[in-house]
């Protein structure tokens, strides 16, 4: 059974105080907290087998290599990739998107079209704008609706035989909207376009199956699913990864090097130049094991309960406006108080020990759409409680009194 009080004991940070108050951590969409099980793996690595991988014949190097490759295998199984070598370990979502965007430089021609959505994080916008500058490809945008959903009719109209790539997020980090990615992928494939899904915000809540989705690329970061920062993954279909040029050159990614000609290593090493975040990769695997032991169905059901509870309670506050009201959303609540700057509310909440995010959430086009400078965003994880939501609601009420 799902027992939140038992789960909370796994997270040492949740028992600390901030400004003399118990910490209420509601900035999970920016980064999640780390359970002792994952911290132990990190300590074990540096205490017992820290070594470079894939090169040494010595015992430590073998142990580190085995654990790193075992983590890749865990990630492969979690996402149901066909082959372990289709999992490229990167420094995170941003790195993964840049890797694909650079890999496509030689695959695009002037006038080719790429489709992005209005709901994206900057890391799924800017690398593609840079790709367009390099290749002369044109970027088209799927608009959003007032509820914070994608306008799928316009999407259908944007697709044509000129479309080469579509990239959207699985779940919006700013609003929590779950996008209809099955439909997006199917329709793109009908015109022969490849699809990249930014799963950074989905993986804390959902277990994606890349083969069932038939997605070409799926990217995510470990630090949003109870793992460390600075590590993430790119899943790519073998056929695409073979077509793409390597992003960075260096050690690990080569087969033979001479000054006349260098040949590249096979997958996944072709895209993994240099010494990777070895400890981070191993801890990424441990984080996935931790989440699976709790179970994604249980996590999603509990978080949905928190979302409904929090939404209802916050909406009781007069002058509070919600952004992102899709029926299909995860436990993210973005809101503002009429006439009050989100930053001021966030600062007062911090004084009460409550951590929320304020600002544009790396999604300025969404804020422009609503014509606001930003929002206050409370994002819940499976280790949060209704009592913490009560504290947030009281805090927002107090802040409103003080600021109006
Ligand atoms: C967090 C996030 C990113 C960026 O992840 P990094 O770990 O900073 O590279 C990209 N897209 C979405 C939807 C996110 O939530």
Please describe what this structure looks like:
The chain is α/β, with parallel strands linked by helices and 404 residues long. The protein folds into 2 domains: 4-30 and 295-403, Aspartate Aminotransferase, domain 1, CATH 3.90.1150; 39-293, 3-Layer(aba) Sandwich (Aspartate Aminotransferase, domain 2). The chain has 14 helices and 17 strands. The chain has helices at 4-8, 36-49, 59-79, 93-103, 126-135, 152-158, 181-190, 210-213, 238-243, 278-294, 296-315, 342-351, 364-370, 386-403; strands at residues 17-18, 21-22, 24-25, 87-90, 113-117, 138-142, 163-169, 194-198, 217-221, 232-236, 254-257, 262-264, 320-323, 332-337, 354-355, 357-359, 375-379. Strand 13 (320-323) and strand 14 form a beta hairpin. The protein is globular. 45% of the residues are buried. It binds pyridoxal-5'-phosphate. The site of pyridoxal-5'-phosphate has 13 residues, from helix 4.
